[in-house]
Structures are given as C-alpha cells and as structure tokens.
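Quick one, tokens below:
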C-alpha cells in the first residue's frame, strides 16, 4: 500500500443468523450465494421484503444495474455478483476453523486469486486451530486474574502466539494448558531499528511482528504511514525520540535508514 493510501474496503464479519437478506437471480451464481447465506443462517427473501443487505446475481447487465439502483434507493447495501463497480460490499473467500474465520478479498479484482489464496492458507492451518481459539475464550477470566494489567495480558498472549511460541497457532496444541503456556512478560522492552525502504513489504518478519506487538512507536517524521499502519490501530504513535523514562510494555524507536 502506498504512503497515504486508504483501504478500498473495511473488512467486517456480519452475524446473519435469523436475519433477512434479499437474493435476486437464478443460475449457478445465485445458487452459490444461496448456499453461503444458508450456512450463515440468513433468511433469504425477495426484493419487496425488509432487509439490511441484498445480493444481485442477475446475468443481464441492464437488469442487474436497475435492480441495484432500486435496492440502493431503499438504503440497502448491495453486492452485485461479478460487477465490482456496482458493489457496496464484496463476499470474500473463506477459510473456516470454527470459531476462527479467515476472509480473503480482492475488492472484486479476481475471485480466482482469492480462491487460490484460500487453498494455500487452508493447507497451512491445523484442524485444531478452532479448539485453540475456544480454549483461549474459555480462559479469559483466568487470564484476567493471572494478568490484571491489560497491556501485560495482551503482550503475554502475543508472545505465546508468535512463531515458535508456546501457543503458535500453526502447531497442534490439543489439550494445551493455557495458563501454563503464558509467561509473565517483562515490564518494559525497548527495540530500535531502521527502515530500509518506504515499502512495508520490505519489512523483515521480525520487524513486522514487533510492530504488530508494540504498545507505542516513537518514530522520525519521515517514516511513512504505510509502515506505521503495520502496527496495531491502538498502538500509540509519537513523533520523536524515546523519553528518559520508558513506560511498561514494548516501545519501538523507528527511523529511516539514510
């Protein structure tokens, strides 16, 4: 993503169980969307019904455009199959390890690319990933007791889930004891490194992981937003140098290499 660029879409997971969704059209594309909506528990209704979302799977271009215009006039968000220019939202390719869902979208650029990525990611993830997520959810109260400070809790979980960590999500952790898998993180960590390029794809795996875990980032004014966007949205960003007294958690000093 270039410096200053914005997301073309905001990924959201929408709970549709028991909720009405309009589906227009017939044929293979409409059938595929019907199966997906039914898996999500949606109630599929016709155009005149009340709904929050609509999917138009109509082959004729003029009919599809007219249907989208009618539905939008009612305030509905619309997906037009194979017509990205008419879409308010797109339907991603999905990898499921319930309750974990991974969605891959291309903004309508290529469904084939999204499907290929889904297949690659599917092969990487152990079948027990959902069980790990369920175990972490069941351990929330215990983790709050073990790590009363929210920042310390997040850092401990992040370290355990990191590559090679005690709860690395790409490894089978059947029967793992969540409490014993998490070590108390150090009170304050400082990491400094220089960026070689304005392209975030040039970050090393270590640098990308540190940015994702950082509580705060102290950075030079010339560090591009595309790099800073690799950090958590709630991580504090400060233009300048590390203060004399560093706060608990992971602080990163980030500069551009000359």
């Amino acid at each position: 993503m270039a410096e200053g660029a914005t997301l073309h879409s905001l990924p959201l997971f929408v709970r549709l169980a028991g909720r009405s969704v309009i589906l227009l059209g017939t044929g293979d594309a409409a059938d595929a969307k019907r199966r997906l909506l039914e898996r999500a528990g949606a109630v599929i209704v016709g155009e005149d019904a009340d709904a929050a979302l609509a999917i138009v799977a109509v082959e004729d271009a003029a009919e599809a455009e007219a249907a989208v215009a009618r539905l939008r006039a009612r305030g509905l968000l619309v997906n037009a199959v194979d017509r990205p220019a008419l879409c308010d939202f797109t339907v991603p390719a999905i990898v499921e390890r319930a309750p974990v869902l991974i969605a891959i979208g291309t903004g309508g650029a290529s469904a084939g690319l999204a499907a290929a990525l889904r297949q690659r990611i599917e092969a990487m993830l152990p079948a027990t990933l959902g069980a790990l997520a369920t175990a972490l959810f069941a351990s929330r109260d215990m983790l709050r007791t073990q790590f009363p400070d929210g920042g310390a809790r997040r850092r401990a979980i992040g370290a355990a889930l990191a590559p090679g960590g005690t709860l690395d999500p790409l490894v089978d952790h059947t029967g793992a004891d969540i409490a014993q898998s998490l070590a108390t993180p150090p009170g304050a960590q400082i990491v400094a490194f220089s960026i070689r390029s304005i392209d975030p794809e040039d970050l090393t795996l270590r640098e990308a992981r540190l940015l994702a875990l950082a509580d705060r980032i102290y950075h030079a004014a010339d560090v591009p937003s595309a790099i800073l966007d690799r950090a958590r949205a709630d991580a504090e960003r400060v233009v300048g140098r590390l203060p004399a007294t560093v706060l608990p958690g992971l602080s990163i000093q980030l500069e551009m290499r000359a």
